[in-house]
Amino acid sequence: MAAGIAPPGPAAAAVEASRSSDESAKLVRQVGLAGVSNAVAASVTNPVDVLKVRMQLAGYGVASPHEPGGVLRAARRILHEEGAAGFYRGLSASLLREMSYSGIRMGMYEPVKEALGAGGRSPLALKVLAGGITGAAGSILANPLDLIKVRMQRAAGPPPYRSVADAVVQICREGAGVRSLWRGSAPTVKRAALLTASQVPTYDHAKHLVLDAGYMQEGYMCHFACCMVAGVVAAGVTSPVDLAKSRVMTQPVDPASGRGTLYAGTFDCLAQVARREGPQALFKGFNSQWLRIGPHTTSLSAVAPGAPASRSRARRGRVYLQGGRERPRGSSRSCASSSYGVWRA
C-alpha cells in the first residue's frame, strides 16, 4: 500500500473520525483560552472602560471645553462619589462579553483565515478580512452583554439591574421583546470591523519599523510600545462609532414601539452630536479609549497562550515567531502577529 494513503474500510473511517475529533477539540480549546485570556485582561482594564463610557455620555473628554482635566477629573469624581467600587461597575457583564465576543474573534481567527486560503505567509489584507469576519460575528453574538455592560457603567447611583439575568429580563420588557437585546448592534459591528482594520495593520507596521531599525528587540517591551502606538490609531478610528454605540445603547426607549427616542441609528447619532456639540465632540473619551486598548492587549499577552514571542523562547534569546515560523533574533523582516498574539501570518 502506498505511503500516506489511509487503509480502506472501517480503519479509514476511524482515522478520519479521530482527525475530525482532534480538530474540534483544538478549536474549542482555542476559543476557550482566548475567552479566558481576554476576561483576565478586561478585569484589569474595567476601570478605564467605565471612564470611557462616563466621558462619552456625561460630557467629559478631550473634546469638552467645559470639563478641563479630562480622564483625571472623571476619575476623581467617580472615586469621590462611588469609591473604588465605582470603577468596577459592569464587571460581570464585561467578563461574560469577553468570554463570548473575544473567544470567537480570536479563537476562530485561524480557522477562518485558513478557510479564506491564507497560507504560511499570507497577505495582510487576508488577515484583516479574517479578523473583520470573526470580529463581526463575535460582536453580534455578544451584543446583549455589551448592552448590559454599558448600561451598568453609565452612571452613579443604584445599579440599574441586580444581575446580568435581571438585566436580560428587564430589557426584553422594553417593547421589542428579545430584539431589544440587540439594540446598538449596528455601531457595535462597525466598531469591531474598524478596530480590526486599523489596529492589526498599525501594530504590524510599527513592529516592522522598530525591529528593522534596531530600536528594540523582540519581547514584551517592544510588544507594549507597538500596542500603544496601534492603540492611538485604533482609538482615533473607532472613537466616533464607539461614542454612537454608547449613546444608542443608553437612549430612552418608547415602550409602545420598543425604539429609541433620540437616535435612529449610528449615522443619525453622529450627525446630531456633530451638529449640537461640534465635530470635536465625536472624539469624547478618546484618551480613555486609548488607555484601555493599549493596556488591554498588553495585559492579554501576559496570559494568552499565543503571545507574539513565547516567553520561554524570549528568555533563552533564541528565536521569535515570524509568519508562523521560527526565525533568528536578528532577522529584520517583520512578523504579522497582532497585539492579541493570535494574528500570526
From TrEMBL:
<keyword id="KW-0813">Transport</keyword>
<comment type="similarity">
    <text>Belongs to the mitochondrial carrier (TC 2.A.29) family.</text>
</comment>
<keyword id="KW-0472">Membrane</keyword>
<dbReference type="InterPro" id="IPR023395">
    <property type="entry name" value="MCP_dom_sf"/>
</dbReference>
<protein>
    <submittedName>
        <fullName>Uncharacterized protein</fullName>
    </submittedName>
</protein>
<keyword id="KW-0677">Repeat</keyword>
<dbReference type="InterPro" id="IPR018108">
    <property type="entry name" value="MCP_transmembrane"/>
</dbReference>
<dbReference type="Pfam" id="PF00153">
    <property type="entry name" value="Mito_carr"/>
</dbReference>
<feature type="repeat" description="Solcar">
    <location>
        <begin position="218"/>
        <end position="310"/>
    </location>
</feature>
<feature type="region of interest" description="Disordered">
    <location>
        <begin position="323"/>
        <end position="345"/>
    </location>
</feature>
<keyword id="KW-1133">Transmembrane helix</keyword>
<dbReference type="InterPro" id="IPR050391">
    <property type="entry name" value="Mito_Metabolite_Transporter"/>
</dbReference>
<keyword id="KW-0812">Transmembrane</keyword>
<feature type="repeat" description="Solcar">
    <location>
        <begin position="29"/>
        <end position="115"/>
    </location>
</feature>
<feature type="repeat" description="Solcar">
    <location>
        <begin position="122"/>
        <end position="209"/>
    </location>
</feature>
